[in-house]
Design goal:
mainly alpha, de novo design (two linked rop proteins), two-stranded antiparallel sheet
Length: about 230
């Protein structure tokens, strides 16, 4: 009789079971969304009681995913102090480039000659922009990107879900910076045949910052989403 009723309705015998299987993932997805909305409401209530500090679900909603754990304090302050040191040296090199161009505390020997380096053709980018000015702009950006306030915004987007995060921009800028440093070191050793102590100090600072930022990007990850679906085997 059951087969006759199914034949009369024109539905396949396994239609009900297939519909149940298709409905199960939708029900799980809707349940996950409901849990996320409930967690966000709980976070807003927590935020109201803690002076405006967002909870993890609210932070995840703002960033488009789970929030990154806070960076270690030693990393935050080390990168900021190094960025300020690089900015200070870059300011000095820029001022000297447009004034006397006689750098103090830099001996003029066969291997070390700051004046020879800073007045060489390689000290200009395309013969127009001084390398010192480029370094000044680079470290002015890093002084902001590596500040304690910027480290707190690591998980936030710069203006929308399709734009890179502060963390991504920081890593990308130092990748470009270390590439330019390698070119400058090559120019000093093989084209100018002299080394500038001030330039070398900036190169070392850039290299240390590159290592620290890449280390952070490699080993500090956001926790997995609580409602993430399990992988199918």
């Amino acid at each position: 009789m059951a087969s006759q009723r199914q034949a009369g309705t024109g539905r396949p015998a396994g239609g009900k079971a297939a519909g149940s299987r298709n409905a199960a993932p939708r029900n799980r997805a809707e349940a996950g969304k409901a849990q996320a909305r409930a967690a966000a409401r709980a976070d807003r209530a927590t935020q109201a009681g803690t002076g405006g500090k967002p909870g993890p679900a609210a932070a995840a909603a703002e960033t488009g995913g789970p929030q990154l754990p806070a960076a270690p304090r030693w990393l935050v302050w080390t990168t900021w102090i190094l960025s300020l040191a690089g900015l200070g040296v870059s300011v000095y090199l820029t001022v000297e480039h447009f004034t006397s161009n006689s750098l103090a505390l830099c001996p003029e020997t066969s291997g070390v000659n700051c004046t020879k380096v800073t007045t060489s053709p390689e000290s200009m980018v395309f013969g127009v922009l001084p390398v010192a000015v480029l370094g000044l702009a680079f470290y002015a950006f890093l002084a902001v990107a590596n500040s304690p306030w910027a480290w707190r915004l690591d998980a936030l987007r710069l203006g929308g879900p399709r734009l890179p995060s502060v963390r991504t921009v920081r890593v990308a800028s130092l990748v470009v910076g270390i590439g330019f440093v390698l070119y400058l070191v090559y120019a000093e050793l093989f084209q100018i045949d002299a080394i500038c102590l001030y330039c070398t100090s900036v190169h070392i600072i850039t290299f240390i910052l590159f290592c620290l930022v890449v280390f952070d990007a490699t080993f500090r990850h956001a926790p997995p989403a609580a409602n993430a679906p399990a992988r199918r085997r």
